């Protein structure tokens, strides 16, 4: 065990993946000598050389196109997109290529070895283009897996699982927590399961569901609700696609209530998808409408980011509304 | 066109590659570092009034950058990007245009906005994201924009303005406006797909666009040697069939000359031009960056000796268009004014809560109105948590 922040846990996972697999290659804008603008790839070029950890030209469609080719060839690309806000030039390569490579070729070819890492999320005074949470755009794309860790321990285990998973994975890293989240992390190799949610806290009155940096927010709201005598069950979804319906549904059958919170705007966010599925799975068990506490349906602002955000106070209010419905 | 190429190409019967570096691209230099003009160099059109205006913009730029980096260190603003050592590209570029020409910049071109007369208050209000910011406090510092001054609001996603500049210029041409579009971008952004799309669109559709690449050697930590292998960015202009020129970007007279020529050509011929200005990013990429992680002090020192501002100053002094007394007075005045403006701007309120939902569409749709109403009720319940807006909700 060692104390690590989220960046160090990611760096450690990359190190393990590169050490065990000579075909694992890390690349993206500024990831080489400098180690990435957040330093997630720090020291990897020194250790594994310029052919396995390098800067690319500044072109996201190029980075992912290159990664698709490399994965199809049988190597293990771990591509970094500097900010999730800048993933869109690569949208075509991800949505039309990575996601469909296996299906369209009848499994003659695949890019299952591809992993795309990218920092996402707000609360860092980043304004429109350094704050977005674009997971729902990708969740609408069959063929991708989408993973979001909430802390250093989760980040290392889930990233190693993502790199080894035989499907293209988009791995969203909560950048607000990069240095803020510190915890005990095993120094040895381990994996956490993709496609499995985790019940973080047992409770009986309402199920709170989130992922990534939003976990901290619902945990804080649950603390507030506890003082009012409300017992919250807390679940980290961990994988957005394919998501763990079973764990969420069995929790909701127990508590009778569900609140989903996401940083992204409300409309057509992944919370909406969960709400629809849980409604049909748990209809007769529900004691109140499923609540969604999300960002406003606007671009991510700067000066008023506090007002825009799905913060713990908004979650707390929604918990009370649900319980008192 | 393909058949034309087939007809026009000389025929050979021995297989041989032409070299990827076979296009030789000269670099235009007019002004030497000591302020003297190269022998035989052809000066741009310039008179004393014009030159003084340019020099004042350079000085404003330098002092603004110094002050705002300090303000960021003191925690007064969240972020800043300076253009230390590259000021000639933006100031000289704007000086070669007419006010009706659109400027679509990347982010390190505040010099163009200074030259066009964007007020100090406007700069400050944007950086402090207060309620007087023309952009309503929505974007990070330095994302300026002004409809009045024909300066398109900066967008962080790189390269997006490049094809837009082709479209904007096409519209200017279509409507018979005596105007061109100037599009700035870095050599890093020139790797984006949008760069290639934009140049080809402009060439094929005959758009009066001036593509101005600031080649400052770095894209954050990535040196240009890791950005491209070809002959800079200029060689790509040749590939797209676009008139191309490479200049010393720290030579403001070369910048002015190239832009004056480019503007005249773009307007008369309805065709794009590409200018590659060679320079060096002397400072950090931004206040979030520390260049000691990727380059040496010696390398930086070499470029300090090519300062574009002292180069212009020497020339101005030699012309008798400027004096040391004016110099001292100007810099003193700018320092005082900028410091005072910081103090004013930081006290102005943040934008009202209504600005969260305005401008998403031309009108606020029903669902956003409801989200705003709910938000206001929530803020009233927890006023301490939302100090910027709580006191002003009716
Ligand atoms: C699409 C996109 N990808 C990545 C970034 C992050 N980023 C911001 S500035 C920058 C470097 C730009 O370098 P260059 O174009 O040479 O301009 P310079 O900073 O040197 O003026 C990068 C990678 C971005 N803003 N947009
Ligand atoms: Mg650059």
Automatic annotation (TrEMBL), chain A:
InterPro entries: THDP-binding, Transketo_C/PFOR_II, Transketolase-like_Pyr-bd, Transketolase_C. It comes from Thalassotalea marina. The branched-chain alpha-keto dehydrogenase complex catalyzes the overall conversion of alpha-keto acids to acyl-CoA and CO(2). It contains multiple copies of three enzymatic components: branched-chain alpha-keto acid decarboxylase (E1), lipoamide acyltransferase (E2) and lipoamide dehydrogenase (E3). PANTHER family: 2-OXOISOVALERATE DEHYDROGENASE SUBUNIT BETA, MITOCHONDRIAL, 2-OXOISOVALERATE DEHYDROGENASE SUBUNIT BETA-RELATED. The keyword Oxidoreductase applies. It is an enzyme of class 1 (oxidoreductase). The gene is bkdA2. CDD domains: TPP_PYR_E1-PDHc-beta_like. Residues 4-180 form the Transketolase-like pyrimidine-binding domain. One of its GO terms (molecular function) is branched-chain 2-oxo acid dehydrogenase activity. The keyword Oxidoreductase applies. Its cofactor is thiamine diphosphate. GO terms for biological process: branched-chain amino acid catabolic process; response to nutrient. It holds the Pfam family Transketolase_C. Its EC number is 1.2.4.4. Keywords: Oxidoreductase, Thiamine pyrophosphate. This is 2-oxoisovalerate dehydrogenase subunit beta.
From TrEMBL, chain B:
It comes from the Bacteria. Pfam families: E1_dh (PF00676). Its cofactor is thiamine diphosphate. CDD domains: TPP_E1_PDC_ADC_BCADC. Residues 59-353 form the Dehydrogenase E1 component domain. Keywords: Oxidoreductase, Thiamine pyrophosphate. Transmembrane segments: none annotated. Its EC number is 1.2.4.4. One of its GO terms (biological process) is branched-chain amino acid catabolic process. It is an enzyme of class 1 (oxidoreductase). GO terms for molecular function: branched-chain 2-oxo acid dehydrogenase activity. It catalyses: N(6)-[(R)-lipoyl]-L-lysyl-[protein] + 3-methyl-2-oxobutanoate + H(+) = N(6)-[(R)-S(8)-2-methylpropanoyldihydrolipoyl]-L-lysyl-[protein] + CO2. Belongs to the BCKDHA family. The branched-chain alpha-keto dehydrogenase complex catalyzes the overall conversion of alpha-keto acids to acyl-CoA and CO(2). It contains multiple copies of three enzymatic components: branched-chain alpha-keto acid decarboxylase (E1), lipoamide acyltransferase (E2) and lipoamide dehydrogenase (E3). This is 2-oxoisovalerate dehydrogenase subunit alpha. The lineage of its organism: Bacteria, Pseudomonadati, Pseudomonadota, Gammaproteobacteria, Alteromonadales. The gene is bkdA1.
């Amino acid at each position: 065990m060692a104390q690590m922040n989220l960046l160090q846990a990611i760096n450690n996972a990359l190190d393990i993946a590169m050490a065990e697999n000579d075909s694992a290659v890390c690349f993206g804008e500024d990831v080489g000598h400098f180690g990435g603008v957040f330093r997630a790839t720090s020291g990897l070029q020194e250790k594994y050389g310029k052919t396995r950890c390098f800067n690319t030209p500044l072109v996201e469609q190029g980075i992912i196109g290159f990664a698709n080719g490399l994965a199809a060839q049988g190597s293990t690309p771990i591509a970094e997109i500097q900010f999730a806000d800048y993933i869109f030039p690569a949208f075509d390569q991800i949505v039309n290529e990575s996601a469909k490579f296996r299906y369209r070729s009848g499994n003659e070819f695949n890019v299952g070895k591809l992993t795309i890492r990218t920092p996402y999320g707000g609360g860092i005074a980043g304004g429109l283009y350094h704050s977005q949470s674009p997971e729902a755009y990708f969740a609408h794309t069959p063929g991708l897996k989408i993973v979001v860790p909430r802390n250093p321990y989760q980040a290392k285990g889930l990233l190693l699982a993502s790199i080894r998973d035989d499907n293209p994975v988009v791995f969203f890293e909560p950048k607000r927590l990069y240095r803020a989240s510190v915890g005990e992390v095993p120094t040895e190799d381990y994996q956490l399961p993709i496609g499995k949610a985790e019940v973080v806290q047992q409770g009986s009155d309402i199920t709170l569901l989130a992922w990534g940096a939003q976990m901290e927010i619902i945990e804080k709201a649950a603390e507030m609700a506890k003082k009012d005598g409300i017992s919250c069950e807390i679940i980290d979804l961990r994988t957005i696609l394919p998501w763990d319906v079973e764990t969420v549904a069995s929790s909701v059958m127990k508590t009778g209530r569900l609140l989903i919170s996401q940083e992204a705007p409300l409309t057509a966010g992944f919370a909406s998808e969960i709400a629809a599925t849980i409604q049909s799975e748990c209809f007769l068990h529900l004691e109140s409408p499923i609540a969604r506490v999300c960002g406003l349906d606007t671009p991510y602002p700067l000066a008023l980011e506090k007002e825009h955000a799905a913060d713990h106070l908004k979650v707390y209010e929604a918990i009370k509304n649900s319980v008192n419905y | 066109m393909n058949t034309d190429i087939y007809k026009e190409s000389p025929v050979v019967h021995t297989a041989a590659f032409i070299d990827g570096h076979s296009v030789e691209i000269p670099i235009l230099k007019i002004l030497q570092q000591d302020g003297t003009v190269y022998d035989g160099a052809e000066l741009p059109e310039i008179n004393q009034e014009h030159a003084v205006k340019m020099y004042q913009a350079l000085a404003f730029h330098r002092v603004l950058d110094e002050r705002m980096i300090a303000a960021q260190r003191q925690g007064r603003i969240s972020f800043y990007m300076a253009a230390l050592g590259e000021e000639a590209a933006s100031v000289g570029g704007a000086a070669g245009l007419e006010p009706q020409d659109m400027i679509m910049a990347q982010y390190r071109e505040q010099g163009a906005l200074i030259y066009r007369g964007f007020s100090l208050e406007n700069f400050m209000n944007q950086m402090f994201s207060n309620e007087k910011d023309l952009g309503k406090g929505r974007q990070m510092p330095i994302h300026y924009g002004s409809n009045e001054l024909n300066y398109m609001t900066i967008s962080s996603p790189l390269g997006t303005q490049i094809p837009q500049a082709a479209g904007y210029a096409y519209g200017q041409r279509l409507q018979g406006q005596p105007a061109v579009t100037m599009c700035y971008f870095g050599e890093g952004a020139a790797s984006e797909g949008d760069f290639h799309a934009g140049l080809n669109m402009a060439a094929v559709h005959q758009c009066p666009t001036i593509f101005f690449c600031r080649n400052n050697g770095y894209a954050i930590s990535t040196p240009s040697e890791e950005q491209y292998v070809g002959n800079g960015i200029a060689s790509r202009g040749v590939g797209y069939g676009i008139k191309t020129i490479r200049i010393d970007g720290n030579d403001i007279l070369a910048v002015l000359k190239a832009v004056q020529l480019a503007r005249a050509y773009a307007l008369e011929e309805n065709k794009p031009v590409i200018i590659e200005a060679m320079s060096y990013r002397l400072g950090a990429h931004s206040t979030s960056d520390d260049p000691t992680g990727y380059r040496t002090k010696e390398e930086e020192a070499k470029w300090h000796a090519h300062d574009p501002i002292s180069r212009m100053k020497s020339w101005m002094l030699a012309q008798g268009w400027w004096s040391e007394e004016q110099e001292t007075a100007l810099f003193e005045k700018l320092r005082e004014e900028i410091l005072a403006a910081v103090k004013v701007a930081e006290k102005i309120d943040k934008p009202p809560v209504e600005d969260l939902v305005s401008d998403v569409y031309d009108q606020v749709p029903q669902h956003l109105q409801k989200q705003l109403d709910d938000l206001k009720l929530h803020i009233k319940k927890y006023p301490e948590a939302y100090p910027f807006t709580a006191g002003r909700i009716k």
